[in-house]
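your task:
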Amino acid sequence: MSKKLLNDASTSVLEMLHALTMSSVGLTRMDGFPDIKVVLRSDYQQVKQKQVTIISGGGSGHEPAHAGYVGAGMLTAAVAGDIFASPSSKAVLAALRAVTGPHGCLVIVKNYTGDRLHFGAAVEQAKAEGFNVEMVIVGDDCAIETPSLAGKRGLAGTVLVHKVVGAAAELGLDLQQVVHLANVTAMNVATVGLALTTCTLPGAASAHRLADDEVELGLGIHGEPGVTRTKMQPADDLVDAMLEKIIAAVKRAPGWCQGATSPTRDVCLLVNNLGSSSSMELAVVTGRALQTLQLKHGVRVVRLSVGSFMTSLNMAGVSLTVLTGVDQLLPYLDAETSASGWQRLLTPCCEPKLVPVPVPVHDTGELIASGCEWSENEQEAVMKASTAACVAILQAEPQLTEWDTAIGDGDCGLTLSKGANAVLDQLKHGVDHDPSTFLLKLSHVFESSMGGSSGALYCIMAKAAAGSMLRSSRQLDTAARWMNAFVSGVAAVLKYGRAPPKSRTMNDALVPAADILEQRDPSMNALQCLESAVQAAEVGAESTRHMPALAGRSSYLSEEVLKDVPDPGAKACAAWLRAVVDSLHR
């Protein structure tokens, strides 16, 4: 059985509607639970005296449809059934009696047999009681080219009908004018759905109709099978297939034919989440749909909305809806509404203007002019030290990977190796004319070649060291400038990484070394000082074997898992620091 955040499957619809009316001062509900589940505008008594009222509804499980569209500028009332079940004619009639006033009422129904029968029975009873009521049935599903006697199913295009007629009623149009707009919208809208998974009803076992590599094209909103089943394909191919069916359908629509003299057709596009598709997936689908409509079909999307409009519980998938003949409908589509489920239509920009990437504030020449150039033999020493550090990381990679596999995600050694190889490639071109530029280029190498936190931290360290070099006094000797640069780099790692010593991170090696260099003994020469710093780094890295993790992925692990395994990031720092100092000794 699938997991859902519900209390009881039998009361989930009642709880949902109760919560919806609790969270909005503009909504109320009829006191007829559980048989009569009707959500109304709080001001329905005043509304029905001044305008045509609008009712819709159907089975639950399609949220935000239909109660989410109750509000000024859309529905006056929504009648809810149980999950995927039409409401009773008794419930629909109760809504009609409540909201129908002297201006009449329009009922919008999706084309499903149960909805047609129950809403139809209620409409006829209301008429018999003297109410001025009309009903429009929406069937926007175009997946089936030759539908049966039941006709095309009502899908997400119904929401656009809600929006048009709700706005028209709010503006004061009479019942026949509103009915006309409902029919115009219904005749010019087409929808196709695509499912990656089936949906699961509350309290029911998960359905497994589709294999992991299968999708269904042309399905309804009640979990029924699609018209065709196919293997999973790239999103672009699936979107193109959906639009082929949609465009074939809208080309037969009155709104398309009326614009036959125009080189392009203006349409509204609705990208609907069927339940559990991610925002990323919706964005990819939207981008392809905009591109294909414009470039392949000569269609200009003048209005767009992306989100959840007519869902099917937790189904993963999307539906695409295209509304043509929008010229006369735009004022109603653009009109304001207080309905919580409606998402404002946007005017898409199919060819966005790109902004150029900013150039660096300082060019290389400025850095050289304001910084310290290489001293004698400094370039050779930096080449040797950098090469030795990279070789040390490459040699340590198997051990680093083993440690990180035990306590992390196993990528530490590989990530650092990528950085080391990238630095070696950079060194083939030699070093630059000054230390600041060299360190800045190293920072770019780290950033582009190493992923995750390690790449960012090494990049920050190199940038901060470059800044220190840039500000260094020309009176300082070479060793002092490099030691100060290292101290500044470690300080930046501490500042942005926010992992203090004894947190079981790379800082357990870097900080002890930086402390030695910052408070260096004046009686020591440079190599002695560096040797002392490296020894401190090695001791610090080794101490992580017996240290609880306070930062990084290791912080989620138990002490038992961490026991006797050192932090690979700290050991890597100790390894390349040792290699640097050994190269200088030689």
